[in-house]
Amino acid sequence: VSQNIYRRNASVCVGETAKFTVRVSGVPKPVIQWSHNGEVITSSSVYKMIEEKEDCTLVITKVTSEYEGEYSCTATNRFGQTTCTTYLEKWPLRCSEGTEVLFNYKVSGDPIPDVNWYKGAFQIQPNRTRIISSNPDGSGCLKLKTVKQEDSGMYMCKASNKFGEASCSAELAVVKETVVVSKQEQVTVVQQKGYKVSVTEQATEDGKKVHQSMDCKLSFEDKLAVVEIPKAKLKDSGKYVCTATNEAGSSSCEALVMVQEPPTFVKKMEPKFTWKQGIAARLQCSVKGSPELHIHWFWDEHELNEGEKYKMSLKNGVAILEILNLVVADSGRYSCEVSNNAGSDSCSTLVAVKGLSSVGFILVLQVRWL
């Protein structure tokens, strides 16, 4: 029998659900038994035991003080057994100053019990900020309005009638303030250049947790949390969510990071062309890069404009310049420049246009005098 535990000691707030999962393997399949402080656990409204293939899970719903302690999982088959243990502790109910806290109860008895509330050893008297209510069906609540740190402590609900009494309690911890995260909206960065997403704390990228690595650096100093990617790639684009948590609660903000690829030439023009006068010539090159790509053509450093002489197009990454009715004067250096928000690139070629040669005859007369 072999066993791997997925979760060690756990801490949960009162009223929350706790889960412990182990992976157990063995032939024949082991029998699983869960224990709490040495007592065997059976399925109930509080304890649920789930087995899915090799994963065995104990679910404890609505944790209270009585469910604190050591939990053990024992796997047994005819060849032996193995046990792993963990410890569950409850955290007090936590909230931030200024919020409203509600303690609910439901009692039963005949006659219906009287209910009193206590903080520590002192009975709570209702006032404007401490409202006590009860209903004929035995339910009721204690409402604390606009709590302060001095409201922290152990609260007890005691129900009694002439036949006896019962009580339950919960601890309240009021912290000074909740966490606040400053927000960013959208960040555009250039591929292969470093960028940082800074916020004021666990970051996720499109639902996946971001981990420290050579490609991603995380830091948190002076209330500033930073995700730094030294060499950004297109795959790093996406929504980054920063979640900050303290005892009072949590807050999140997000930034949309768009990594842009600078333009480059996949195929440049040939270094030199020689054409005859009078034809229509075409120059073309292939480019790639993040949209939107802008193409500009130049002749001897002068930018060309589309018209009767020049036709320009960019389709499926191929940039084309057509030169109509070539003449000798069209000779020179032609350049193509591509740009986007991430950068620019250019390539050039030398064009020579040859005209028709003209032939002249000179008639020379020689006269010889006799």
From TrEMBL:
<feature type="domain" description="Ig-like">
    <location>
        <begin position="80"/>
        <end position="173"/>
    </location>
</feature>
<feature type="domain" description="Ig-like">
    <location>
        <begin position="1"/>
        <end position="77"/>
    </location>
</feature>
<feature type="domain" description="Ig-like">
    <location>
        <begin position="263"/>
        <end position="352"/>
    </location>
</feature>
<dbReference type="InterPro" id="IPR013098">
    <property type="entry name" value="Ig_I-set"/>
</dbReference>
<dbReference type="InterPro" id="IPR013783">
    <property type="entry name" value="Ig-like_fold"/>
</dbReference>
<dbReference type="InterPro" id="IPR003598">
    <property type="entry name" value="Ig_sub2"/>
</dbReference>
<dbReference type="InterPro" id="IPR007110">
    <property type="entry name" value="Ig-like_dom"/>
</dbReference>
<dbReference type="GO" id="GO:0005737">
    <property type="term" value="C:cytoplasm"/>
</dbReference>
<dbReference type="InterPro" id="IPR003599">
    <property type="entry name" value="Ig_sub"/>
</dbReference>
<protein>
    <recommendedName>
        <fullName>Ig-like domain-containing protein</fullName>
    </recommendedName>
</protein>
<dbReference type="Pfam" id="PF07679">
    <property type="entry name" value="I-set"/>
</dbReference>
<keyword id="KW-0963">Cytoplasm</keyword>
<keyword id="KW-0393">Immunoglobulin domain</keyword>
<dbReference type="InterPro" id="IPR036179">
    <property type="entry name" value="Ig-like_dom_sf"/>
</dbReference>
